[in-house]
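Why do we care about 3D structure at all? Because function follows from shape, and shape follows, mostly, from sequence. That is the central idea of this module. The next example makes it concrete: a single protein chain, its amino acid sequence, and then its structure expressed as tokens.
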Amino acid sequence: MSVYPYSKISLVPNYGILKSRQDAKTMVAFNRKFYRLPVCVSNMSSVMSNQLAKWMSENEYFYLMHRFNGIKNKKDLKWFIEKANNENWCDINISLGVKLEDSALIDWIIANEYRVDAICLDIAHGWSVNMKGMLSYINSVWKKNKPFIIAGNVATKQAIIDLNSWGADCCKVFIGPGYACETYKQTGFATLGTFSTALACCDEPPCSIILDGGIRDNGDFTKSLVAGMQNNNHSVLTMAGSLFAACVDSPAETWSETGDVAYKIYYGSASRKNGNRKNIEGREIMLECNSMTYEQKLKEIEESLQSAISYAGGSNLEAFKNVKWVINES
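And the structure:
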């Protein structure tokens, strides 16, 4: 099987129908709502914070609150859910694992009748007995107003089919392509061919898809969507971490040795799980700060996608379904 990352792909322009790229629409339908971009900021503690989650909820960006807060995780998450409900956020989206403590938090949400719009069951190897058990549990106890369930991560079409049959409304795809991820080096397992894997996994899938990782620049968002939308009647979002961790207002720790150049300390979730720096499948890296806020970076991505839509020959994201590509073998 041929393996092609985004960096090996060039997209072929179509005849443009827009008089101005600003006329291109980048909105996407996802979980019965419309969002400004088909983009999701990674649900990692060095990328997402309570403050950013609230801002995204208020400004029509889809987000997922992370689940890695050290030993205080469940206490912090309860506080987040209570605060978002009391303030009646537009979106209340969280991430959980598949352990007994996560089941207990689900029971707490149901007992208190809190609104949660989306839950991401976020584990490294989603095609597993533990994921099957958690999805079964959610479906058995959540009798009304059940959240939109995202499950992952997975790397094959069969895994998506199985997770959907177990109760997932959306699957998070890719293992190992993240900038701070070392799953491939540590285990030998990974989906390094982001473009080719997206093509295979998103070929008439049974549910929505989030393509998670491998984004190095704005053009990769377009390549991701082109691969994910070819034979797909469901929604596709692209998730990115390092591009946002480099922003000035990211929760990643800021470091500067001379005061002239600022860096952000970005790390994979698996390297600091439960507050420990085990570095089993993740590493810490220094990202040069891009001097942009999340708002500015998201606006830049929007403008990049608008230009991409004009090159694709359409007026909205659907244009990406008709884009051809060439492979750079060098």
